[in-house]
Amino acid sequence: MSGFSTARQKMVDGQVRTNDVTDRRILDAMLTVPREVFVPASRQALAYLDLDLDVSEGGAKRFLIKPALTGKLLQAAEIGEGDNVLVVGCATGYLAALTAKLAGQVTATECDSALAAKAKDTLAALGLANVDCKAAACPEGDPAAAPYDVIVLNGAAEVTPEGLLGQLKEGGRLVGVSAESKPPRAMIVTHFHAEFGHRALFDASAPVLPGLERTAAFVF
């Protein structure tokens, strides 16, 4: 494991801190959660590289988003220790594991049921008892555990995720990458008095989550 722990330290020092992630709780979580256990064995050598890592095994491609973007989105979300958080499109569960270190309760959804099962097993093996992983389409979220203080997208949306915004608590916030226009940007959407305020944070790109793609316009 020493090679992975060295790689983990290098990821945090070389990719995450250098992108202005200063929240000690997030840095500690990224130093302790073993990213390699969320990656298929054949690709574990890539676990700590600065890339969106394909963790799918057949089926639709599913990704762990870049470490730096992961850290920046978590920092923007300002997750409190008692917060109820939804992680959407969690793939194998890495972002859900980090979030579980920061929040009170985490619900994670993944549209690929085989990956959702794998995420559930991996999170349990790490002893993270405050996270519940479910198979569900990305746009649906999980109304049963709503409302949420924070919703984090493990990827990008080309459309406004109305169904997810409806699961935010008053004062709650959703963070993710908006690819509705170019260039794509990390966004935070806040819910106050039945209104939703959208604020761009920084330019960022990430794979689009299944179900949150722009529908192709019909062209003659």
From TrEMBL:
Protein name as it appears in the record: Protein-L-isoaspartate O-methyltransferase
One Pfam family matching this protein: PCMT
Lineage, highest ranks first: Bacteria, Pseudomonadati, Pseudomonadota, Alphaproteobacteria, Hyphomicrobiales
Swiss-Prot/TrEMBL keywords: Methyltransferase, Transferase
Gene Ontology MF: a single term: protein-L-isoaspartate (D-aspartate) O-methyltransferase activity
Signal peptide extent: none
Family assignment from sequence similarity: Belongs to the methyltransferase superfamily. L-isoaspartyl/D-aspartyl protein methyltransferase family.
Recorded GO CC terms: cytoplasm
Presence of keyword Methyltransferase: yes
SUPFAM superfamilies: S-adenosyl-L-methionine-dependent methyltransferases (SSF53335)
GO biological process, one term: methylation
